[in-house]
Design goal:
D-Maltodextrin-Binding Protein, domain 2, 48% helix, alpha/beta, 21% strand
Length: 284
C-alpha cells in the first residue's frame, strides 16, 4: 500500500475536494486523481463520488477511511522509531487523557529523565476512546486513563485509587439544586449517579470536562462531583466544602497496555508511573 496515496486520500476526505487537496499538498489535481485511481485499482472499489460540490466517500471509501488513518499513523510511528535519537536505545510512546498529565504524567516524565535516560519518549494527549484504539493497534505503547472500559487483549493495571466527591461553594446547596453542575465522568459514573440520585431533576448545566466545571463553580458558585485531589486545595483554602452525607464514587487511574508490547520496556515505564503515583500520594 502506497503511504503517499493514503495521505492523499485522507487530505481529500478532510477538504472534501480534489482541488483543495491538490492545493494543500502542493501537487496538481491530475496527480491527486492518479493517486486515488491507484488506490481504487488496488482495492477494486470506487472510493469517491465527485460532483460540482466536491467529493464524498462511497460506502467502500467510508470503510477504507479507518484503515487509511491507521496506515499513516503506523508509518509515522515506524519512521520515528527507526530514526532513533542519538544516544537512545529505545523509544516509547505514552498517551494520556487531559486530566492525568498534571501532575501524574508530568512527574513521570521527570522520573524517566532521571532513571531511564536511554529511552526516547513520545507523548500525546487525546480522548480515552481514541487512546484505547491506538494502544490496541500498537500506535501507542501505553495509555494512562481514568476507569477505562474493558477491552479484549489489553491489560489494565491500577495505578492510583481516586474518588469523586460532592463539593459546593454553598453549604445549603447540593445535588438537584439549580446551581448543581453535572460533571460527566463517563458511563460508570452516570450509572452510579443515577442509582444514588434516582429522583434528581435534569441538570441545568452539564460539562464533560472536570477542570472546566471546577473553574466554573469557583467563578460563579455551585456544586458538583470532582476528583478529590483536584478539589483538595480549594477545600483546604475554604473556597469549597464537602457536601455532607453524599456518596463518593471510585474514579481510579489505570495504565493500559498490550501484552504484545516489549515487556522489559513496559516494566520500566510502569515502574516510573508507580513511583510518580506514590510520590503524589505522599505529597497529598
Amino acid at each position: 500500500m502506497d503511504i503517499v496515496a493514503a495521505r492523499t486520500f485522507l487530505e481529500i476526505v478532510k477538504t472534501g475536494s480534489f482541488i483543495r487537496a491538490a492545493a494543500n499538498l502542493n501537487i496538481t489535481q491530475t496527480a491527486v486523481s492518479a493517486r486515488v485511481r491507484v488506490l481504487e485499482e488496488q482495492l477494486d472499489r470506487q472510493l469517491f463520488i465527485r460532483n460540482k460540490a466536491g467529493a464524498r466517500l462511497t460506502p467502500a471509501g467510508d470503510q477504507f477511511l479507518r484503515y487509511a488513518t491507521t496506515l499513516v499513523q503506523v508509518w509515522e510511528r515506524a519512521r520515528h522509531d527507526v530514526a532513533m535519537p542519538v544516544g537512545r536505545e529505545n523509544v516509547v510512546t505514552v498517551g494520556g487523557e487531559h486530566s492525568v498529565w498534571d501532575p501524574l504524567l508530568r512527574d513521570w516524565l521527570v522520573w524517566m529523565k532521571s532513571e531511564c535516560s536511554d529511552v526516547a519518549i513520545r507523548t500525546q494527549i487525546d480522548v480515552p476512546e481514541r487512546l484505547i484504539d491506538q494502544v490496541q493497534e500498537g500506535i501507542v505503547d501505553l495509555a494512562v486513563l481514568y476507569a477505562p472500559p474493558p477491552r479484549a487483549g489489553l491489560v489494565a493495571e491500577l495505578l492510583q485509587e481516586e474518588a469523586l466527591v460532592a463539593v459546593t461553594t454553598d453549604p445549603a446547596a447540593g445535588v438537584g439544586a439549580d446551581d448543581y453542575v453535572f460533571v460527566d465522568w463517563g458511563p460508570e459514573f452516570r450509572a452510579n449517579h443515577h442509582r444514588a440520585f434516582p429522583d434528581a431533576p435534569s441538570p441545568v448545566l452539564s460539562i464533560n470536562h472536570g477542570p472546566l466545571a471546577l473553574d466554573y463553580i469557583l467563578a460563579v458558585g455551585g456544586s458538583g462531583y470532582f476528583r478529590m485531589e483536584a478539589a483538595r486545595p480549594h477545600l483546604e483554602s475554604g473556597r469549597l466544602r464537602l457536601v455532607p452525607d453524599k456518596p463518593r464514587f471510585s474514579y481510579s487511574i489505570y495504565a493500559l497496555y498490550s501484552p504484545r508490547a516489549d515487556e522489559r520496556l513496559m516494566e520500566r515505564v510502569r515502574t516510573g508511573l508507580r513511583a510518580a503515583s506514590d510520590a503524589q500520594k505522599s505529597s497529598g
